[in-house]
Amino acid sequence: MLPTDLPLLRTPGAPALSPDGTTVVVPVVAPDPETDEYVGSLWTVPVDGSRPPAPLTRGHRDTSPVWSPDGRLIAFVRAEPKGRPQLHVVEAGGGEPVRLTDAPLGVSEPRFSPDGARLAYLARVPEEGRYVAGEDPGAEAPRHITTFRYRGDGIGFFRDRPQHVFVVDVPRDGEPGEAARDLPEPVQLTSGDVDVAAPRWLPDGEALVAVAALHPGREEDLLRDAVLVEAPRTPRDAGSEPPLPRPLTDAARGSTLSVETVLPSADGRTLWLLAGDQGPSRLDFVASQTGLFTLDLAQVRARLDEPVRPTELEGAEDAGEAVLAPHVTPRRLTDAETTDLVPGLLALAGDEVLVADQRRGAVVLLAVPATGEGEPRVLVDSPAVVSGLDAAADAVVVCAASPVSSGDVLAVDRATGAVRALTDLSAPLRATGRVRTPRELTATAPDGYPVHGWVALPDPQRYGTGPHPTLLLIHGGPFAQYTHALFDEVQVLAEAGYAVVYGNPRGSAGYGRAHGRAIRRGFGTVDADDVVALLDAALADASLGLDAERVGVLGGSYGGYMTAWLTTRTDRFAAAIVERGFLDPISFVGSSDIGWFFGLEYLGGGDTPEEAAALAAQSPMAHVHRVRTPTLVIHSEQDWRCPVEQGQRWFVELKRRGVPAELLLFPGEGHELTRSGRPRHRITRFEHVLRWWAQHLPVAPSASGR
Q: Of 213, 341, 502, 605, which has the fewest CB atoms closer than 10 Å, so is most exposed?
């Protein structure tokens, strides 16, 4: 894959099945260097494969489709060039979409009410005088910060623009027009200084369930509750504020669950939750293993108005006007040690609940018995990497990537387990002849621990059988995983003539809770052993044809940490690329959006000399004087996850010690540059990466075969 092949990475979004299960609508989006945005439209795909996929819309960027209960309409979110995404509806058979909103900051997550008469959606509500189009943001009033949480990477400041739930009436035939003055009047269902997420209608159409943090300790912990949002059909009195959402789970009483996703059963008696346990500190997010829970919603709603004793409230003396949930404990249905589900992927299919589990570089589709009795069934197995799912009638569809696809729509037969591809979105990319299929790789760490990963080799017809210059690529997180999915970073490097070794050391997701927690308070220990063991195993395999004398290392975020860390420990690498790195846990505490808890939980820390020494022992910045490896530092100016000062300081410390170093800064980008940054920036970044490796690890002309 060449950097200029980036527009061929066509990726499906969340699929939406028609109520009768015969048709799936899926958004397909790709980077577009010409507009420097991501563009795409909605496609309809027959589940039986009787016809090829066909375009339903032709907007600049159309996403988030949902069907009306009667199958007549499809609601979706459309963003015009450089514009805010707004809610639209279109006839299922095609036609001209009708716009329903003009939210100043855009909308997301549309959901039809059970009767199809209303649409709920999310929108951020800016404070008066802030985020006004055409106005000078530098002239806004100062922000008065009193909480740990006030900004987020990829979002920006959010306490002055909380996210709320709105509803709008669905137009009848012939209503309304496209002009803003004709748009239906939205009704705001939530208000105040609280972010609401992931709304779903209850079957009675009088309320929604969602996710929000309302409990007294919400500014000092990571917990979020399932909540009830009232959605009365009769309008409130003019000028009255919407009531606060009502908690359905128990963070205020001492529960340690953080809820990510909610879904009610068809009869409204059960609420399914995807949630993780944050431990007694309510901050112990490390490998918290998102699980599937069930909650007796009928019992909870029946007890919503019961009085609560003050002693039941966690931190009762500071509770103020806290709203409490009835005390009903959710029941976990998946194993807390081995199963880690992907938030947001949750659907009901008959007597089973469909979820997606991270497993050894795959994301598999699981069918969990709704009763909790019996073992989950794997419906879509490795090497698939499931990214979206839906179920309706007797049909199940998923979107999933593979080693040679950035994602496709698959039909799944729940009875037989048969899986059938309905699209082939990566065919144009494969047709270039520039897609390499990685080989799985296993190694053994010095303490005997198994390490799993992959190696991608250059095309032997063009680069021969080696020896190939080799790059060790390290993922971020650290509780994340490299997967079997087609990965543009690996493909671009392999196309340029490099062998790429990458895998999932201890600390990664997908291998169980113990694997993920193995580096808690021990960064740069067994994780460093694992990535080096994987590299050495690949170099020692003569059949791969790798050059053990010409090796580089690169990674982003935690991978940037590990790259920098390795260069403080060894001079074996010809060069390094440290990207968006977590490099100094001390300054990270005050500068990162997650700094107030991330480093303290992962690396520890405190005020005693012993605690300070333990922190320094895991800090690359504390050992930067040992580095001799030429290093390219890549960072984004608006990165609030690993703030730009981390990369700038690493560059300066190397430069002033005479180490060959360069700094590549991307304006306007955040932490997600390599995944969702501006297309032109992504291409430019690839060009600089290849330039750096050509300088320090040139591909030998004799091996190029050109």
A: 605
